[in-house]
Specification:
The structure holds 2 protein chains of 2 kinds.
Chain A: E1 4-5, E2 10-14, E3 19-25, E4 32-38, E5 45-51, E6 56-59, E7 62-67, E8 72-77, E9 86-94, E10 98-101, E11 105-110
Parallel strand pairs in A: 2-11
Antiparallel strand pairs in A: 1-3, 3-8, 4-5, 4-9, 6-7, 7-8, 9-10, 9-11
Chain B: E1 4-7, E2 10-13, E3 19-25, E4 31-37, E5 43-50, E6 53-57, E7 64-70, E8 73-78, E9 87-94, E10 105-106, E11 110-114
Parallel strand pairs in B: 2-11
Antiparallel strand pairs in B: 1-3, 3-8, 4-5, 4-9, 5-6, 7-8, 9-10, 9-11
Classes of the chains: A mainly beta, B mainly beta.
């Protein structure tokens, strides 16, 4: 039962353009959402998060948007840089005790 | 100074063997986790310990037994390995449980391959 889904396994974007990664979830009770970034042969590293009481959170080039009615969140990276090429996982949690991860989207930023 | 370290990084072994994966964190965190990432890249929690006590135990075969000798270590022992156990296993830690705003810190994973 996959409660968090990332339906695009891969995405290619030109350097300098915007990257938009999408994530859908099924459990309307989730109250916190996170994005992790993962390079090959490394573990995921935390990138940005958002509480369910907000609809937007921004940190430098990274912005996460939350649409609770659609049970959808997205990560915007602008401008995209070659070093952003990685796999991005979204995760959701209820109370913070257990985290549910999506299957990841592999982003390639083309120089 | 690696925050969450796992050993070994790669583990290739025969079906039926028993193996252990070790995890240590030097962040002073109270909570540690084991995740399994299968061939479909689905990252799923297996166990969570808070201060050496088991707090999450998902539906995992009892061939998998976590052990936490202290709050900085959470080891995973697997008995009678099966082909389906082939996966990447990630250890993670967080400052405390039940705080969604405190992100988890992951190790680099242990790639387990069963022959």
């Amino acid at each position: 039962d996959q409660q968090v889904k990332q339906n695009s396994p891969s995405l290619s974007v030109q350097e300098g353009r915007i990257s938009i990664l999408n994530c859908d979830y099924t459990n309307s009770m989730f109250d916190y959402f996170l994005w992790y970034k993962k390079y090959p042969a490394e573990g995921p590293t935390f990138l940005i998060s958002i509480s369910s009481i907000k609809d937007k959170n921004e940190d430098g080039r990274f912005t996460v948007f939350l649409n609770k009615s659609a049970k959808h969140l997205s990560l915007h990276i602008v401008p995209s840089q070659p070093g952003d090429s990685a796999v991005y996982f979204c995760a959701a949690t209820l109370t913070g005790n257990q985290f549910y991860f999506g299957t990841g989207t592999s982003l390639t930023v083309i120089p | 100074d690696t925050a969450v370290s796992q050993t070994p990084k790669y583990l290739v072994t025969q079906m039926g063997n028993d193996k252990s994966i070790k995890c240590e964190q030097n962040l002073g965190h109270d909570t540690m986790y084991w995740y399994k990432q299968d061939s479909k890249k689905f990252l799923k929690i297996m166990f969570s310990y808070n201060n050496k006590e088991l707090i999450i135990n998902e539906t995992v075969p009892n061939r998998f037994s976590p052990k936490s000798p202290d709050k900085a270590h959470l080891n995973l022992h697997i008995n009678s390995l099966e082909l389906g156990d082939s996966a990447v296993y990630f250890c993670a830690s967080s400052q405390e449980p039940n705080r969604a705003s405190l992100p988890q810190h992951f190790g680099d994973g242990t790639r387990l391959s069963i022959l």
